[in-house]
Amino acid sequence: MRTVYLNGEYMPEDEAKVSVFDRGFLMADGVYEVTSVLDGKLIDFDGHAVRLQRSLDELEMRHPSSKEDLLEVHRELVRLNEITDGMIYLQITRGNPGDRDFAYPPQDTAPTVVLFTQAKPGMADSPLTKTGMKVISIPDQRWGRRDIKTVQLLYPSMGKMMAKAAGADDAWMVEDDHITEGTSNNAYIVKGNTIVTRQLGHDILHGITRAAVLRFAREAQMSVEERPFTVAEAQAADEAFITSASMFVMPVVEMDGAAIGSGAPGPVAARLREIYLDESRKTAI
Ligand code: PLP
After folding, report:
1. What are 190's strand-pairing partners?
2. Distance (Å, rounded) from C-alpha 163 to C-alpha 165?
3. Whose CA is closest to atom 12 on ligand 1?
4. A single GO CC term, please (predicted)?
5. What is the DSSP string of 136-197?
6. Beta strand residue intervals within the chain, DSSP E
């Protein structure tokens, strides 16, 4: 049985209980982060800590603890659960104010803080890397502040189910004829020598992996354009791929049934994946 962290204590998962009045449960009033673990070390913890602070600030939620304390909890859970490869989920909600009310409760209401691990042995060697992913396009019907990493994940869940029903691995979401991002990842195409991905704004999550991969791409003298692109452009691209903390860089080989490029994983995605994994392992803590 896993050990989880709840409001300052480590305990077996079946003893961790949250109130039915918790605003995370009643109103999806909460934020989260997912940090990967490779070889027992945290990948880009700093990036996730900075985005967490931003999500909390945007929702006027107070930060329950310092970055150093959070790091310690992450490390302790890795140790207690003997995680070599996997993910750590951190969930923070606005807590239980007593009565259900739309208004935010007073600032001194204790937030609910939960961390848990998910082991994923060999996650850097996923077989999908060899075959590539198939994606479908679906309308982006999420709310307008996708840059805040909230626990409102119902539409992404629906998107994953639509993809599954269509025999695909994931869905890329479309708004005003342009792709925003994947249901749980950022989306990229490659045309010629240029990597194209949507620019940051309120309409996509500011991926921590995205920031690192674009930095490595520029350092390797690859050209990067941050702008919206269409489904037709994706289908006519030489390559496509996604990035996320748990998938790293993963090739995409088909969009709405049309092969992208050769229909096999391409060299740019493969190179970026290698650089990302090498560099991230070097700086893991
Ligand atoms: N976009 C969405 C909608 C996501 O849910 C995620 C990750 O969960 C990402 C992008 C990728 O972000 P990161 O690289 O920080 O994992």
Report:
1. 195, 239
2. 5
3. 207
4. cytosol
5. EEEE--S-S-TTS-BS--HHHHHHHHHHHHTT-SEEEEEETTEEEEETTBEEEEEETTEEEE
6. 3-6, 9-12, 30-38, 41-42, 86-93, 112-119, 133-139, 170-175, 178-182, 186-191, 194-197, 223-226, 239-244, 248-255, 258-259
Q: How far is the CA of 208 from the centre of ligand 1 (A)?
A: 7
User: Is any atom of ligand 1 closer than 6 Å to the C-beta of 209?
Assistant: yes
Question: Which residue owns the Cα nearest ligand 1 atom 4?
Answer: 184
Maximum distance among all alpha carbons in the chain?
A: 58
With a 6 Å cutoff on the Cβ, whether 96 touches ligand 1 is: no
Burial tier of 227 (Cβ tally within 10 Å: 0-12, 13-18, 19+): exposed
Q: What does the domain layout of the chain look like in residue ranges? A: 3-121, 128-283
Q: Which whole-number Å values give the CA distances from 273 to 117, 193, 243, in the listed order?
A: 24, 17, 9
Architecture of domain 128-283: Alpha-Beta Barrel (3.20)
CATH number, domain 3-121:
3.30.470.10
> 94-119: per-residue pLDDT in tens?
999 999 999 999 999 999 999 999 99
243 Cα–ligand 1 center, Å: 8
Of the chain, the percentage scoring pLDDT greater than 90 comes to 99
Distances (CA, A) of 33 to 145, 228, 233: 16, 25, 31
Distance 89 CA to ligand 1 centre (A): 13
Query: Which pair of tokens denotes residue 73?
Result: 């909890």
pTM: 0.97
pLDDT digits (tens, 9 = 90+) for 210-223: 999 999 999 999 99
Say what the pLDDT of residue 282 is: 96
Is residue 185 lining ligand 1, measured as CB closer than 6 Å?
Answer: yes
Here the tokens at position 41 are 């070390």
